[in-house]
Amino acid sequence: MMKTFKGRVVAPGSVSAEAVVSHGGLNTLASFQKALQFGDKKATCGDQNNPDLYGKQMAGKALCLPQTIGSTTGGLVLYCACSMKRQPACMLFSQPIDSLAAAGAVLADVWLDDVSMPVVDCLGEEFLAYVKDGMKITVGEDGTVTVE
Questions:
Q1: Mean pLDDT on 17-32
Q2: Burial of 141 (0-12, 13-18, 19+ CB in 10 A)
Q3: Between the N and C ends of the chain, which has fewer C-beta atoms within 10 Å?
Q4: Are 117 and 108 in contact, with CB atoms under 8 Å apart?
Q5: Are 104 and 112 in contact (CB under 8 A)?
Q6: Burial class (CB within 10 angstroms; exposed 0-12, middle 13-18, buried 19+) of 94
Q7: What residues have CB less than 8 Å from 127, skipping those under 6 apart?
Q8: What are the pLDDT digits (tens) for 94-146?
């Protein structure tokens, strides 16, 4: 079964990837710290307070979440993950994106030539309720997100 959701494009691009889902806010720093400091190329989530994602690979995955939480370094963490090629394939927010995550995504899109991390927000609670780990996600240039 396939379902389509429409959101707002924050960082442009199209991609297909496997979903990983967080139902709580994503603490960007805690989640990506191992990837940035200790050479974890899979960007395994290191946030023990996030039972949905802890220990799971985030690099190359469609990261589905309500919003990001935590440190004001959040935007820089996302930018650094992109610059090190350890970013999610895309970030899909059920709620409006927070300013820190938006800043990191937009800066990566503008400053990094060979990196793509499409970001779509405002996909709605129904999106987060529907999507499950391992589902195939396709993101279109117009903010259309197809889940199958």
A1: 97
A2: exposed
A3: N
A4: yes
A5: no
A6: buried
A7: 5, 7, 64, 92, 94, 145, 147
A8: 999 999 999 999 999 999 999 999 999 999 999 999 999 999 999 999 999 99
Distance CA 51, CA 72 (A): 22
Amino acid letter, 88: P
pLDDT confidence band for 71 (50 / 70 / 90): confident
Q: Which helix (H) or strand (E) holds 5?
A: strand 3-6
Helix axes 28-37, 99-111, angle to 10 degrees: 40
| Cα–Cα distance, 67 to 121 (Å, whole number) | 9
128: Cβ–Cβ under 8 A, 6 or more apart, which residues?
21, 23, 64, 65, 66, 94
Task: Identify whether the C-beta of residue 118 lies closer than 8 Å to the C-beta of residue 87.
Answer: no
pLDDT of residue 1 exceeding 90, the answer is no
